[in-house]
């Protein structure tokens, strides 16, 4: 969670949050408030009296208001600092992060793209880029530990593309070698990540509301305003879609002669499909590949407790319930 939050802040907003190393108290406080707000909002689905609690400002709704205030204050401070920084830089073209680009555009439409509008953009990027990638990577390393042969195949592909790990090799020197060209060669890793997303889609349930009357492919008619939901978690385990071994973790199902073969997004629905397909899909794959390659190049992982039964916690996103302690063994010892 800390790693992906740092990543989305640096890429999206040009800010080094430093949550992972723990040097930013403000960043840590923001992350806790953000995660707590997520849990409290999900609780509304189970609490028939949440509107009453909100009206009287009590219980979980009172706590939610406090957490959202922390989130809003942090984001508004971020926008203010970024505005000042851009004002100092003037009209230079050094506006690589997304927030800087939006701030530049907001000068053309100040009434429409006000601070509230920019706050919503920032939170949308955080929601899309933090929990999703972090949750998927957690399940990924868990199943790599449960399937050591798959972990070895991923490691072998990394060795084939990047070379052997050597004693005294530096992480910075290695990461500098991770290019788009090399990432495109990682077919087995891409397949393994896709297999994780199939079995543990971070959004297990998704849906849309019909803008107009429509007819679904099977002939079922829906009216304007009807909500249509689909369950990616169940679809990823259907034998009619994925074969008799649908519940098994088998990256090879995505490969043809060692080359990754994508599936139809209407079958592999974790990123949605059609005009509303996830804009961050390729960014998410790239981020997960880089982190996985860097870790698996230097370490071999196994579960700290092989007998522990792992499950997920009920939230809007599919996260592992509790911690996942792993043992990391340096590959320079082999």
UniProtKB/TrEMBL annotation:
Where is heme annotated to bind? 278
**GO molecular function list:** heme binding; iron ion binding; monooxygenase activity; oxidoreductase activity, acting on paired donors, with incorporation or reduction of molecular oxygen
Q: Quick check: keyword Translocase in the entry? A: no
**Which cofactor is recorded for it?**
heme
Q: Which GO terms describe its biological process?
A: lipid metabolic process
What Pfam families does this protein map onto? p450
Keywords, A to Z?
Heme, Iron, Metal-binding, Monooxygenase, Oxidoreductase
List, alphabetically, the InterPro entries matched: Cyt_P450, Cyt_P450_CS, Cyt_P450_E_grp-I, Cyt_P450_sf
Does the entry feature the keyword Iron, yes or no?
A: yes
Q: Which Gene3D superfamilies match?
A: Cytochrome P450
Q: Which family does it belong to?
A: Belongs to the cytochrome P450 family.
Record PANTHER family: CYTOCHROME P450
Record protein name field: Cytochrome P450, E-class, group I
């Amino acid at each position: 969670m800390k790693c992906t939050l740092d990543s989305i802040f640096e890429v999206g907003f040009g800010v080094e949050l430093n949550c992972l190393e723990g040097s930013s108290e403000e960043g840590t406080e923001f992350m806790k408030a953000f995660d707590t707000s997520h849990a409290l909002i999900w609780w509304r689905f189970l609490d028939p009296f949440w509107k009453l609690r909100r009206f009287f400002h009590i219980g979980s709704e009172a706590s939610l208001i406090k957490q959202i205030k922390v989130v809003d204050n942090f984001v508004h401070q971020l926008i203010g600092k970024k505005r000042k920084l851009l004002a100092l830089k003037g009209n230079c073209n050094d506006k690589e992060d997304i927030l800087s680009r939006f701030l530049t555009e907001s000068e053309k439409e100040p009434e429409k793209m006000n601070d509230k509008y920019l706050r919503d953009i920032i939170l949308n990027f955080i929601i899309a880029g933090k929990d999703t990638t972090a949750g998927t990577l957690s399940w990924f390393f868990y199943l790599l530990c449960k399937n050591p042969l798959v972990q070895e195949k991923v490691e072998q592909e990394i060795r084939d593309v990047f070379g052997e790990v050597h004693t005294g090799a530096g992480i910075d020197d290695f990461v500098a070698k991770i290019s788009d060209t090399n990432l495109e060669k990682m077919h087995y890793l891409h397949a393994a990540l896709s297999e994780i997303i199939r079995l543990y889609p971070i959004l297990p349930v998704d849906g849309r509301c019909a803008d107009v009357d429509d007819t679904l492919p099977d002939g079922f008619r829906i009216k304007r305003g009807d909500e249509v939901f689909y369950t990616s978690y169940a679809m990823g385990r259907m034998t009619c879609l994925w074969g008799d071994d649908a519940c098994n973790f088998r990256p090879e199902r995505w490969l043809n002669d060692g080359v990754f073969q994508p599936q139809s997004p209407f079958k592999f629905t974790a990123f949605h499909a059609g005009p509303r397909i996830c804009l961050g899909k390729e960014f998410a794959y790239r981020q997960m590949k880089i982190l996985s390659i860097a870790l698996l190049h230097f370490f071999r992982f196994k579960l700290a407790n092989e007998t522990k039964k792992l499950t997920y916690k009920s939230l809007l996103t599919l996260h592992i319930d509790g911690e996942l302690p792993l043992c990391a063994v340096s590959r320079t010892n082999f």
